[in-house]
Amino acid sequence: MARSRADPLSPYRKKRDFTQTCEPDGVERRAVPSRPAGALRYFVQRHEARRLHYDFRLELHGVLKSWAVPKGPSLDAATKRLAVHVEDHPLEYGRFEGRIPPGLYGAGQVMLWDDGIWTPLDDPEAAYAKGHLRFRLDGRRLRGDWMLIRTGREPDHWLLRKLDDPDAQPGHDAEADHAAGCPEHLPAGTPSSARFPDTLQPQLATLVDRAPTEPGWIYEIKLDGYRMLCRCDGDDIRFFTRNGVDFSHHLESVRNVLRRRVETDRLLWLDGEIVVFDEAGVSSFAALRDALANGPQRIVYVVFDLLHRGNRDLRPLPQEERTAALRAFFERLPATAADPIRYSDSVVATGADLWPLACERGLEGLIGKRLDARYVTGRSTAWIKLKCRPRQEVIVGGYTESASSRHGLGALLVGVRNGHDGIDYAGRIGTGFDAASARMLLARLTPLRRDRSPFTTTPPADHRGRIRWVRPDVVVDTQFAGWTSDRMLRQASYVGLRDDKPSTDVEREVPMKIETAADADRRTRKPANAERPAGVTITHPDRVVWSKPTTTKRDLARYYERIGDAMMPHLVDRPLSLLRCPDGTDSGCFFQKHLSHALPTGVRRFSPDGEREDAALIVVTSVA
């Protein structure tokens, strides 16, 4: 098949805004996985977009030929999966993991599910052109011989299927495989052998109206800065914003100190915030903006979580264990009072007592973290924030010119996203900026001028014609007195520019009632090792077994795990029957004495003398 001279990645680039997404652009070549000479790589990524699917990618012609597989690849040779051919991706995309922001093409979470080497069983170019590609996979999850066949019904519709060979697994399902092998299900303290990731996405806190009253929370000072994840790979130390934008060039002095501090730990992922402290020791957003503009000597990286160390993924561990690991990590590192890398101390206390004290001392507020919760990507009620003063990020959609002011800026017209594709007008910001910040804002906004308002709701008219509309790309932080009944900012004052946050992420932030947050947290709560009691994966753990009181499969398994050692002396060498209730105990149940299919580890057959093998009873030999 003749290769086109056209750029094969042009369709890929046209669909993406690389100022908003952290996906590789394919121009600046990044490191890709090592491979034997002449070998071709393949990657499978689990993509939680508008609809969950798996992206199947084969290296060919210096790009990744890509198919979206809605149900994921199956090792069952009798199963055929629809595979929709999509645009070619750059080779660097194979190792991409992260969150594509809302509103962008492919918005959602991407994680690497499988990777390895693929070997064509025919001439790959001719087979690909013909639409009949046979190949062998040698990866972490997928192995053996496979086939991709163009269906002929739609030019981009193919079928992916496993060929019948010793690597085939009847009944295999990608999602079940994912659940069983996901790091979320590792027991607490179990090191993960997953490779060191290129990208990570942060956990975000939920704003609540007051502190929880129950125990089991740890509290930290809420910092007024830029959230930063730090990736340390030997001497290569990178800082990334919450949206995955590389911020490293702003933090060279911090990186130099960190290189010396972590010489013995070559692979690390840290979570923290860059701040500048004022003379009273309080973080100041205005001072941070000044330091970023005029020199980063005063910038401090405050670390509050340890996510990866070497090839061990610490995110499945409870907050309490990660906090202890981080404290121990910092205790052995040399530090000075002027050190630009610090540990964010925390206390186990009652938030209702701490919050007023934090506000009295002029702090931004508190962050509360549930002690038994794992680290998860995205917004979570296991992390909460308690603010002393209302703050809100807003999108600048226009500004007014002023002939009376020295700097020519009258007010900013701002809005927030409405959960769809539009931006609702939210009011004006006319105070808080001095001459220097006003000139900086005008310099940023003037090139973005446009003829029409970007807001879906109509701002009040300005009869003097001073409004200048702009493309809604700039995000600023504002402090305000509250929301009016018509959802406008009241007494809004400019705090600073937010270069670390894209406008696609800015929505109205209203405090959630703590009771609502607690209910949501209980529904989603999965303590470390929740689905692997005694090391056994529990499928459908939330399925209700008994309704009075409500008891799930997870609850039942946990009960047996706790009392298993006491039960075993009464069960050893005794034939058992199963009471099976497929739809819960409120529906029909039946006894089953014999199991004809393969038995799991810890269960054996018992055949009394003279009984047929297929009439064998079962005997449990371990708690698992």
Question: What does this molecule look like?
Answer:
Residues 180-194 have low confidence and may be disordered. The protein is globular and about 100 Å long. Strand 2 (52-60) and strand 3 form a beta hairpin. The protein is 17% helix and 33% strand. An 8-stranded antiparallel β-barrel has the order 1-2-3-4-9-8-7-6. Strands 21, 22, 23, 24, 25, 26 and 29 form a 7-stranded antiparallel sheet that branches. The protein has 624 residues and is an alpha+beta fold. It starts with 9 loop residues before the first helix and ends with a strand.
Provide a concise account of the structure shown:
By secondary structure, the chain is α+β, with helices and mostly antiparallel strands. It is 17% helix and 33% strand. The two termini are 55 Å apart.
List the helices and strands and how they pair.
Elements lengths: L9 H5 L25 E9 L3 E9 L2 E7 L10 E11 L7 E3 L7 E13 L3 H7 L1 E8 L3 E8 L6 E6 L11 H8 L21 E5 L9 E5 L4 E8 L2 E5 L11 H10 L5 E9 L9 H10 L5 E10 L2 E2 L5 H13 L9 E3 L3 E2 L2 H10 L4 E6 L7 E10 L3 E11 L7 E9 L5 E7 L5 H11 L3 E2 L16 E4 L4 E5 L2 E2 L5 E2 L2 E5 L16 H11 L19 E4 L2 E3 H19 L6 E3 L9 E3 L10 E4 L10 E4 L4
Parallel strand pairs: 10-20, 15-17
Antiparallel strand pairs: 1-2, 1-6, 2-3, 3-4, 4-9, 5-6, 6-7, 7-8, 8-9, 11-18, 11-19, 12-13, 12-14, 14-15, 15-16, 19-20, 21-22, 21-25, 21-26, 22-23, 24-25, 26-29, 27-28, 30-31, 32-33, 34-35
